[in-house]
Design brief:
171 residues, mainly alpha, globular
C-alpha cells in the first residue's frame, strides 16, 4: 500500500474569508499608536542613570522604542486561528516576538535601575504589562477587544500610568 500526502496549499484555504476590519478598528488602532507614542515619550523623559550603565541606555532607547513599536504595529488580523492543517496558530496581535521579549524583561531589568523611584518602577512595569496585554487581547478576541472598548480602556490606563501632572506620580 502506498500513502500519498495531498499537497499543502501555498496560501490560505479557499474557504477562509478575507479579513474584514471591525467597526471602529482604524480609530482604535490610531488611538493605541498615539498612546504608545506618549508612553514612549514619558519613558524617555525619565532621569538618566548617574553614571553610564547598560540598563540606563536600555531604558532610554530600547524600551521606549519597543513600546512605540508594539502600540504602532497592533493588528487584529493577527489573531489566534486555525491553520490550514487544522492546528491552532497562536496570533500575536501584530507585535513581533522580539518586541514582546523586550517588554517582558522589564521587571528583571528594573532591579538594576536603582536611581529610579519605586513609583517609576511600578509605572514602567504597568506600561510593559498594558502594552503586552493589549496585543494579547487582540490576538485572543479582536472583536470583543475593539467593539466593547477594552483596547480603548487599556489605552486610557496607559495614559494614566504615564501622566506627568498626577499628584504622587511626578517623575
Amino acid at each position: 500500500m502506498t500513502i500519498t500526502h495531498l499537497p499543502v496549499p501555498a496560501g490560505p484555504p479557499d474557504d477562509v474569508p478575507p479579513y474584514e476590519p471591525w467597526a471602529g478598528e482604524p480609530e482604535v488602532l490610531a488611538e493605541a499608536a498615539e498612546a504608545g507614542r506618549r508612553a514612549a515619550a514619558w519613558i524617555r523623559s525619565l532621569p538618566a542613570a548617574p553614571a553610564p550603565r547598560p540598563v540606563g541606555t536600555w531604558l532610554a532607547t530600547t524600551l521606549p522604542g519597543a513600546v512605540e513599536a508594539a502600540m504602532g504595529s497592533l493588528d487584529p488580523a493577527q489573531c489566534d486561528r486555525m491553520g490550514p492543517d487544522g492546528r491552532l496558530v497562536e496570533g500575536n496581535g501584530g507585535v513581533d516576538a522580539g518586541t514582546t521579549s523586550t517588554l517582558t524583561v522589564v521587571p528583571c531589568v528594573l532591579s538594576d535601575a536603582d536611581w529610579l523611584t519605586p513609583d517609576q518602577h511600578i509605572r514602567l512595569m504597568a506600561v510593559a504589562s498594558i502594552t503586552t496585554g493589549i496585543a494579547r487581547l487582540l490576538a485572543d478576541d479582536p472583536g470583543t477587544a475593539i467593539l466593547h472598548g477594552q483596547v480603548a480602556r487599556m489605552c486610557t490606563t496607559l495614559d494614566h500610568a504615564t501622566r506627568l501632572d498626577h499628584p504622587g506620580l511626578a517623575t
